[in-house]
Amino acid sequence: MRYLTIILLLFSGLAYGQTHLRGQRYIQIEAGSYDKLLPGVQKGQMNYHCRIGLGSYSKRLRGGLFYLGYATKSTPLTDDEGNPVGAVIPVSQFTGGYQYELNLVENAAKTFLIKLPFGGLLGYESLNGNKTKYGSFTLQKHSDLLFSITAGLEFEIHSFVVGYRQAYHFTGNYQKFGSYPYVGLKIHFFQ
Question: Out of the domains of life, which is the source (predicted)?
Fold first, then answer.
């Protein structure tokens, strides 16, 4: 993993002056948290998401990105009155989708951009590994297909990306809104 990170950082520097050209393709890799500010394991609860996508720039230099993503988090289990019972339920999302990027602010060299990414995703949301029982408890919600729209704000500095994305899940059984702060790397291909 360490070598892969070093290689990605080296290759992103090669394309320093060759970014944001019409028709140019790129790979975007990002990682972050799911409904929290920072990812990781806190008090036995996992919380992270990752995404990889392949995109290209249009004639107006706006990005279009097809991607695959995975998100997981642990949610405290509550009884019928809403009291925590000391257990956590894993929630996972497996998604794919399309994102369109509208440039709000950019410098002349296109090394600093503020973008508005928005799009749609389709996937599967798994609650408790598709099990409806947890000890003596029966879950009221179940795993299901996921159809969502997303919108966010993204800052791109050279090849590094920092952003925040909010999703509205039309068909999600777990929760209707999900937030995804992230950092990422955009690798531009030579044209």
Answer: Bacteria
Structure tokens that stand for 168 in this block: 């509205």
* Residue 183 belongs to domain spanning: 45-101+114-151+169-191
Interior/surface letters 13-39, b for 16+ CB within 10 angstroms, e for the rest: eebeeebbeeebebbbbbebbbbeeeb
Write phi, then psi, for 56 (nearest 5 degrees).
-150, 165
Asked if the structure places residue 61 within a domain, the reply is: yes
pLDDT (tens digit per residue) in 134-159: 666 666 667 789 999 999 999 999 88
Residues whose CB falls within 8 Å of the CB of residue 84, separated by 6 or more in sequence, listed in order: 76, 77, 78
Residue at 156 is within a domain: no
In a domain, 36, yes or no: no
- Give domain status of residue 30, yes or no: no
Phi, psi angle pair for 80, to nearest 5°: -60, -25
Per the structure, how many domains does the chain have? 1
pLDDT in the model for residue 94: 95
CA gap 46, 40 in Å, rounded:
6
pLDDT digits (tens, 9 = 90+) for 61-117: 788 999 999 999 887 777 777 777 777 788 889 999 999 999 999 888 888 999 999
